[in-house]
Amino acid sequence: MLDKLDVSNLALFSGKKIFERYLSTSNLVRPAFDQFMDYSHMFYKQRRYTNNGPLVKQLEQRLAEFHHVDHCITFSSGFWGLVLAIKALALSEKTEVIVPSFTYRRMADVVAWAGFTPHFCDVDPQTLAISASTAVEAINADTALILCVHPIVNTCDVHALLKLAESFQLPILFDSVESVFETYLGKKVGSFGNAECFSMHASKFINGFEGGYVTTNDPVLARKLALMRGFGFYGQDNIEEFGTNAKLNEIHAAMALASLDGLDEQVEHNRTIYRTYQRTLESISGIRLLTFDEGERTGFKNIVVELLDEWPLSREETIAVLHSERILARAYYSPPLHQKKYTYPTKSTEMSATNRLAERFMTLPCGYLVDESDVELVVDLLKIMRIHAYDIRRRLQL
Known about the structure:
Blueprint: H1 11-14, H2 33-46, H3 54-66, E1 71-75, H4 78-89, E2 96-100, H5 107-113, E3 117-121, H6 132-135, E4 143-149, H7 158-168, E5 172-175, E6 183-184, E7 187-188, E8 195-199, E9 212-216, H8 219-228, H9 250-261, H10 263-281, E10 287-289, E11 303-307, H11 315-324, E12 330-331, E13 347-348, H12 352-357, E14 361-364, H13 372-387, H14 389-397
Parallel strand pairs: 2-3, 2-4, 3-13, 4-5, 5-8
Antiparallel strand pairs: 1-9, 6-7, 8-9, 10-11, 11-14, 12-14
């Protein structure tokens, strides 16, 4: 597609950008508007906009069925779902929550908001996720909870982590925000550990504008979380639990329900985008596409690549060129959490794998607003960048 393009045509040299619109790495799926309005009419007719309204109840039931789990509790955001789940599950009189360093930039803040000290651990270099062998290095007499985060592509080794938690008699919580559609050994994500947490941000698989939810098979925990999201009230003026206002409103529930109705179409679109990257990136030396485990159910949502030693540009240089062309590629979890500065205490284990991997991965455009021709153009640009790496580096240094 870019056969006639050379380095002089790139924005760095000519000022003219290849793409007229920005290509994002966020999902930004738009559910069918008619379905959104049909759901919205339900709460409008009942004059019920919040406080566990009809659509929130319907959404929780559908999500519980979707994840093959007994209970689902929705929240105003995945952030507050995680905070309250940590607060509800962590062992009393203990102070630390184990969390991988190579993960979401706000994860340490989530733990601190819940009132605990983040204890960062390394990741498995194959899965890029927390593992039993890395988590065990952080376990000590102060450990209150193991917070396991699934990676952007595929899942962590769930069974090994469950055995670890059981052997130390520790609660275990899974952050599964990027694994909504996935299975682990044939079993649906959402039903593992004490609980699992998901996001319904517009960038995620289920778009509720914003929102989150926690799934669990524990009825006591489910009731506790439902109380905690509503100031801890049970009945009028009767406070039973620590709480805050983290209730999902009906407008967000309507959006999420409409998004659920279109999941199959979304997966097919994601699969097409992934297959196009899979086919076109094969011809570029130095870039490795992280492949989905198709022996499991997967949503094909995110596109992550590793820049190998033979790739001639650094990740920062590569991203700078892509950004200059309106391609909003992103560094993968950079910097790792243990390398950041905090206003609250943190602890860390040895980070050999995370430090080695931290500069090698990035995410490429994907989601609802990206099509096959966009992907082909992005990959053709990467080919041009490889050929003209020396000239590009010189221009970036000017």
